């Protein structure tokens, strides 16, 4: 489509330029050094969903590349297990005010994992 070649610079502008750039998470002033920052996990749940899988459905979630296991149950959230010092130095707790965001990210991840039910398909069973 040479007739549209004048649009090429626009397409370059619209393309995501920083696709390989890793996000950084500067600590907030109120963060405790004895608590984990959940933001990188929340980011990974949204942007690299294939890196996670259930260890126990609804209860513990594994980040496969790093082998960090997270509690996601109704009673507790946080880091449950890791093969490094992350859990021992922090007791696995997230920073204050991060529990709700983590739960929301896990819920969104879980919904994205499950194939969506199709109302039209379901209705077709009964209406022919
Ligand atoms: Zn670690």
Structural commentary:
The protein has 128 residues and is an alpha+beta fold. The protein has a domain at 33-116. It is 35% helix and 13% strand. The chain has helices spanning 8-14, 39-47, 86-90, 99-113, 119-127, and strands spanning 52-56, 60-63, 68-71, 78-81. It has a four-stranded antiparallel sheet with strand order 1-2-3-4, with no helix packed on it. Helix 2 (39-47) packs parallel to helix 4 (99-113). The radius of gyration is 20 Å and the shape is extended. The mean pLDDT is 86. Zinc ion (ZN) binds at residues 68, 82, 84, 86.
Task: Tell me briefly what this model is.
The chain is an alpha+beta fold and 128 residues long.
Share in β-strands: 5-15%
Spatial sequence of strands, sheet with the most strands: 1-2-3-4
Low-confidence blocks of residues: none
Radius of gyration: 20 Å
Helix content: 25-40%
Number of helices: 5
Question: What value does the average pLDDT take?
Answer: 86
Q: Tell me the quaternary state.
A: single chain
Taking the alpha carbons of the first and last residues, their distance comes to 45 Å
How many strand elements?
A: 4
Ions and ligands? zinc ion
Biggest sheet layout: 4 strands, antiparallel
* Net shape: extended
Series of H and E elements = HHEEEEHHH
Q: SS-based structural class?
A: alpha+beta
